Every structure is written in structure tokens, then in C-alpha cells.
Amino acid sequence: MSPSRRFLPPIASLQALEAVERLGSATAAARELSQTQSAVSRQLQSLETQLGVDLFVKQGRRLSLTPEAIDYALDIREALKIIGQSSLKLTINPAGGSLDLAILPSFGMRWLVPRLPEFAQLHPEVTINLSTRLSEFNFTSEPFDAAIHFGKHDWPETDALHLKDEAVIAVCAPDFLADKSIRSAKDLLQHPLMHIQTRPSAWRDWFSAQGESVDHVGGMLYDQFSTIIQAALHGLGVALIPDYLVEQDLASGRLVRAWGHATPLPGAYFLVWPKTKSKDAAVLKFRNWLAAQMDQEDMLPR
To answer: Which CATH architecture has domain 5-92?
Structure first.
């Protein structure tokens, strides 16, 4: 059953409320919306009447939103954002077939994006819109059809395609350990170690894989692999980096192995999508294409 018209106010009234909450006054809202202040006030009064709820309280000569109206305006902002993005998608690709995909910055740019031209050739009818996200989010409140996720397949109410496991290499600039004696993995603890925010236990797991028990690993914290790679290149310390991200730097000698070889660690990359999108044509085409990509990688010599 569709909502009563009482609960579907005009877009103009909702835009006025959202702008007032965000900008702090009807005057500023009117300026942004290219309307008069009285027009904005009438829209807000109409909204109060339609909903049957007080949205404002008087504070001297000023009108302020009630706490309930502020919460309502925040929800409306997200709804207007979704409407705007959907309208943009329709304008860009009126035949349909768009896919809004959340990607992890480094994996997306270094692994996925170089492969996308093939997908575009096979499926020119599908437009892929990319945005970066570093952690899980709620598909019901974020306008994404699917996401690239690292970790376990434990994202609620989603289906998933396993893409690849992760193996990391401890790397540093060639000169960083030139005058340092490294006889075991544990010797690295005497030097600056760099951590990635999304893998808080990576160094501890790595030491365990080398046969070393370590309770605490201190060091510098970074939010993205692209940043931590640059820090390693400039000699700031030793970093644990997925092998696919440092192949070129190792081959060119810009980075060297600080200890050991590629080490598999817990966690994997997944394509995830909400169960409500399981029959979406664009999601299915992208999922099947990615599955074929992984089959091709599995056939490559190790």
C-alpha cells in the first residue's frame, strides 16, 4: 500500500525545510533556492499544516527548528540526495542499466579500474558509477547497488562473490635497512612499522605466520594503501602491502622486501550486493563478468 498523500509533501516544501536546517535561516535558504523569504516561509507553514506537527519554535524574533524537525530534515536530505542521483542516472543513461558501485580506493584503482574497459566493451548499455568507501555501510541508507568489500562475507542481508584472497609483503625503501641487521622477522620490531587502518591486526597476524608470537606492534597509522606506499618509498618505515599493489615497485627496485615473501593473511575481497538487488540486470552482468575475471586469474601460472 502506498503512503497517504499526507505523508508525501511537495518536493519544494521538503527542499525548503532541508535548506533551512542546513543553512540556519529562511533568508539563507531563500537565497540558495532563488526564492523570496516569504515564499520559503509559506512552504514551511504549508508543510506544518500538512503533517499536523509543529516544526518551529520562536526564540525572540527568530524561528528555530524543533529537535524532531531537525531529525526529519536529516532524513529528507538523504531522500533528496537519492532522488537527485536517480535523476542524474536516468539523464546519463535513459535506457537504464546503471550500476552504483562502492569501491575500496587502492583495490578499486589498481585492480578493478584497469579491467573495466573490457566490461564496457561487453556491456556498453551499463553505466558504472564509482565512489570510494573504506568501511561497511548500510545499503538501505546509501544509494549503492553493490560494493567491493574486504574481510569476511558477514555483511548482513547481502549476497557475495569471492574475488581473491590477500597475500602481503613486508616492504621498505632500499636504503632503509641498508645499515641495519635483520636476522629474523622479529628484528623488524626494532624499526618503525606502518599500519593500515582497515587491517588493525595485520602485523600481528604476519608475525604469527612467520612463527613469531607478538602481543603488541606499535607504529604509524595510515588510512589508505596509496598513502602508506608513498611513506614506504620515502623511507619512513616498513609496510605490509598486498602483493598486487607493489609488484611494479619491487620489480623496479623502488621498494625491496624487508623480510620473507608474500604471506597469506585472514580476509578476502568480495563483491557484495543487497539481496533486494539479486535480480537486478546490471548487478547480474557485473557479477558474472567479475566471476569470469577470477576464473581467468586462476588459470594463470603461479
So the answer is: Orthogonal Bundle (1.10)
Q: Grid coordinates standing for 71?
A: 531529525
Could you tell me which residue, 105 or 7, shows the higher pLDDT?
105
Q: Fold match between 5-92 and 165-266?
A: no
**Which CATH code for domain 98-110+126-155+268-299?**
3.40.190
| Backbone phi and psi for residue 168, each to the nearest 5 degrees, phi listed first | -115, 155
Give buried/exposed letters for 201-229 (b at 16+ CB in 10 A, else e). Answer: ebbebbbeeeeeebeebeeeebebbeebb
Question: CA-to-CA distance for 84 and 102, rounded, in angstroms?
Answer: 18
The β-bridge relationship of strands 238-242 and 193-196 is: parallel
First and final C-alpha spacing in the chain: 56
Architecture in CATH of 165-266:
3-Layer(aba) Sandwich (3.40)
Rounded to 10 degrees, the C-alpha dihedral 273/278/279/282 comes to: 20
pLDDT tens-digit series, residues 152-172: 888 888 999 999 899 999 999
Q: What is the pLDDT of residue 98?
A: 83
Lowest-pLDDT range of 92-101, 158-167, 224-233, 286-295: 92-101
Q: For residue 41, what is the enclosing H or E element? A: helix 37-51
Q: Any idea what DSSP says for residue 3? A: P
The Cα–Cα gap between 277 and 287 comes to 11
Looking only at the bridges linking them, the beta strands covering 158-172 and 256-274 are antiparallel
Q: Which residues, 6 or more positions from 253, have their beta carbon under 8 angstroms from its beta carbon?
A: 174
265 phi, psi to nearest 5 deg: -125, 160
Residue in this structure with the C-alpha cell 508543510, named with its chain if needed: 47
**Residue 193 φ/ψ, nearest 5 degrees:** -115, 140
**How does pLDDT run across 59-118, given as a tens digit for each residue?**
766 778 888 888 988 888 888 887 877 776 666 555 557 899 999 988 888 889 999 999
